[in-house]
Amino acid sequence: MFYRPAEGHGLPHSPFSAIVSPRPIGWISTRAATGDNLAPYSFFNAVGYTPPQVMFAGDHRDSMANAEESGVFAVNIVAEAALEAMNATSARFPRGTDEFVAAGIAKAECIAIDCPRVADAPATLECRVVKLVDLIGPEKLILGEVVGIHIRDDCLVDGRLDYARYNPAARLGYHDYTFVREVRALRRPRDPVGE
Question: In this protein, which residues make up the domain named Flavin reductase like (predicted)?
Answer without folding.
Answer: 20-163
